[in-house]
Amino acid sequence: MFTQIELSYEFSALEPHIDTLTMETHYSKHHAAYTKNLNAAMEKASQKDQERDIEFLLKHLDALPEDIRTAVRNNGGGFYNHNLYFGTMAPHGGGTPTGAFASQIARDFGSFDLFKERLSAASIGRFGSGWGWLSVGDDKKLVVSSTPNQDNPLMDGSGHPILGIDVWEHAYYLKYKNLRPDYVKAFWNVVDWKAVASLYEKTLEQL
Ligand code: MN3
């Protein structure tokens, strides 16, 4: 049974960057639906698959029975992606990361500002619905990418996501309408870099 991450902040806490109604709808409706539909699909899976964690399932979608594969891809992706999204935002976020994680960003992208430009461009340039990602590759390097729908870098083995920018219209349309670049710009103000750095460290330990 998969459960949504508990928010450590109020729906209104990310104002003015992410508005209250968007947060409430996004978490209580969209994320809740992905989670419910993932659990419904997994009821038809084998006992063994039901005991797997979500990362394993998304890395091995081809091993799932065909009749639930698409449902797990879409809803399991949605479940995982949003747990990451909501878990790496915080009121009074933003600023810049520190420590070993910050050094790795400078090594792999040249500077923090160049990294921000890369991830912003990947997110803004994603045609239709999808995500922009910062991931740790198997070679321990940081990599920026984007995926359509609720896919993520676990699915094609290109990386282990540690930060995702949701660029589905439901993530920004109520406040920013069609102006995705304005939402992406605002998103940087709510990134919880401590949480992202901690995911980075945890991911390195598991590689
Ligand atoms: Mn979303």
How would you portray this structure in words?
By secondary structure, the protein is mostly helical. The protein has two domains: 19-87, Fe,Mn superoxide dismutase (SOD) domain (Helix Hairpins); 99-206, minor pseudopilin epsh fold. 51% of the residues lie in helices and 10% in strands. The protein contains nine helices and three strands; from the N terminus they run ααααααβββααα. Strands 2-1-3 form a three-stranded antiparallel sheet. A hairpin with a 5-residue loop joins β1 and β2. α1 runs antiparallel to α4 (66-87) and α5 packs across α6. The two termini are 26 Å apart. The model has no long low-confidence stretch (mean pLDDT 98). It binds manganese (III) ion. Manganese (III) ion (MN3) binds at residues 26, 30, 82, 166, 168, 170-171.
